[in-house]
Amino acid sequence: MELIESVKNLTQFSFDPRRISHLIVVFCLVFALLKIAKLVAERQKWKYALKAFPGPSPHWLFGHVHEFRQDGTDLDKVIAWGETYPLAFPMWFGPFVSFLNIHHPEYVKTLLASTGDGLLVSHGKKWFRHRRLLTPGFHYDVLKPYVNLMADCTKTMLDKWETYANKDESFELFEHVSLMTLDSIMKCAFSCETNCQIESGTNSYIQAVYELSYLINLRFRTFPYHSDTLFYLSPHGYRFRKASKIAHDHTEEVIRKRKEALKDENELGRIQKKRNLDFLDILLCARDEQQEGLSDEAIRAEVDTFMFEGHDTTASGISWILYCLACHPEHQQRCRQEDLSKIPYTTLCVKESLRLYPPVPGTSRKLTKPMTFFDGRTVPEGCLIGTSVYGIHRNATVWENPHVFDPSRFLPENSAKRSPHAFIPFSAGPRNCIGQNFAMNEMKVAVALTLRRYQLEKDPERIPKKIPRLVLRSLNGIHLKIKRVEIEP
Fold first, then answer.
1. Which of 181, 275, 299, 341 is surrounded by the most beta carbons within 10 Å?
2. β pairing state of 97-102 and 384-388
3. Is residue 457's pLDDT more than 80?
4. pTM score of the predicted model
């Protein structure tokens, strides 16, 4: 009888909702405390690891995030700190995530000589295999015919600008340039005709890229969002997944159509007779020594990367170059007077603008092994390293009058005096940008053709407010006035 009573009591205890809820609360509290203790230990670990690197004092909760007001002065804040700490300094994003921010060529030289994660995202051997398979897609013979396609896309954009010519009012050009570079990458790299520059309404892919750039920046700045779970459950996480789907659907449709075209074994030969194989052909047909190609997942990842890198970063570069030339009419005029087949001074101006306004203002990497810099200071495995490209390009210990637009810096005799790591708009070392020749060609073509048709003037009422959003953008857009010019034949 006592045994039966004991079983009854045990059963009642086991299924008492109040007691179960109490246990759940206790379990959650213990789990939360353990998690917090782990995070605090991690914070102490990195404070100790980075103690050799003095820097601006962080807030105990926000770190340095509250210093960045997203008002167009964030990058200037980094430059100001760099004047006090000219090699590197720690930056905290929230209470638990720290980056060693480096902004000196000698530090960058050490970092970029190593390997990290990715063509953007893949590991060691996998990355080198992908790089080797993709390299033929950027051969001179493949890139050469693209110049005419780039010129056609630029002319379409310039024709649209006629409506703004000779008016005493400015227009926002970044969105126009983004459509042009998307049109160009689709035609050049994917042999895909689009009407994105002339179709009505906004382009869903470009809007998705803008949304993703904003949300990635927001997540980085909002420390609770550093948790995958919290971000996934948040409204911003939902927006991120929605925008990601639009971007992925866009690239998957491009891949699907090309795969259909290549099902016939003879189709590749017929395509090659019509035109050079493009980036996507090479991606789909690439084989290594074991005759193994890229997986469907790898192909999509590389197409996603190149679709984004090939249009958004280039759009940023072109937009800021045109802005620089609008601010410096004397340099603009020298560029305009050049023969289109040879544009040495235009090239100098392109490089100087890329120095002042690098399309990718910063990159980051997680170390897979300890690293010692030239001055003997060391950081351990697992350290997050942020490379401030913007900071390196404006480092006063490297560049004389770093904030002044001076294309002569890039004359051969002047460039020879500088470290090759002082100017890294396309990164450097083993993981330099594979598409840099493509990007430089497009920027030079777009700038030269624009100057042949229009005189550019800045709008003093609408000075751009620089903001890093994966690529360098402007909070209030980039506004210019244009006037029609006639070039003597």
1. 181
2. parallel
3. yes
4. 0.88
